[in-house]
Amino acid sequence: MGKAEASQEVSAAEDTLVVVKPDGVRRGIVGEIIGRFEKKGFAVKRLQMLTMSRPQAEEFYSVHKEKPFFGELVSFISSGPVVGAVLSGRDAIATVRRMVGATKSWEAAAGTIRGDFGLGLTDNCIHASDSAESFTKESAAFFGQTRG
Questions:
Q1: pLDDT tens digits for 20-67?
Q2: Considering only Cβ atoms within 10 Å of each terminal Cβ, which end of the chain, N or C, has fewer?
């Protein structure tokens, strides 16, 4: 690979956040889920296990605050330990979202994380940021950094 190609490869990298939800942690499939991203070539830049407080979960899901399912999302994500990972790689946000699959587990394609492991709508094993803006907001809420 030439110098121009190498620098283009580096500049195309972006970060995204995935959170293995309490159902995935309880079932002992965190390693298998994170391993799929590593096998795809993503680097794990940050990894942390925690149990979200209710205020932290409300901030994390604040984009859904006015939706009828907000309370259920907050209750579920704060119901037990979760594992958050910042992944880095080429076209990370879109690629990770494709790997994760449809939100409704029963609609997610086989071979996707939700298609293979998800059991329902809320208990679908994983959350993944859907944009660079979401990554910034969600990672700050997850890792306890304040927004500027």
A1: 999 999 999 999 999 999 999 999 999 999 999 999 999 999 999 999
A2: C
Domains of the chain: residue spans and CATH: 13-143 (3.30.70.141)
Please report the beta strands in 8-94, taking only residues with DSSP state E, as ranges in sequence order.
13-20, 43-50, 82-90
pTM: 0.89
- Residue pair 102/114 in contact (Cβ under 8 Å)? The answer is yes
Beta carbons of 89 and 43 less than 8 angstroms apart: yes
Half-sphere exposure (Cβ direction) of 122: Cα atoms closer than 13 Å:
13
- The whole-angstrom separation of Cα 111 and Cα 134 is 25
Tokens encoding 49: 């296990």
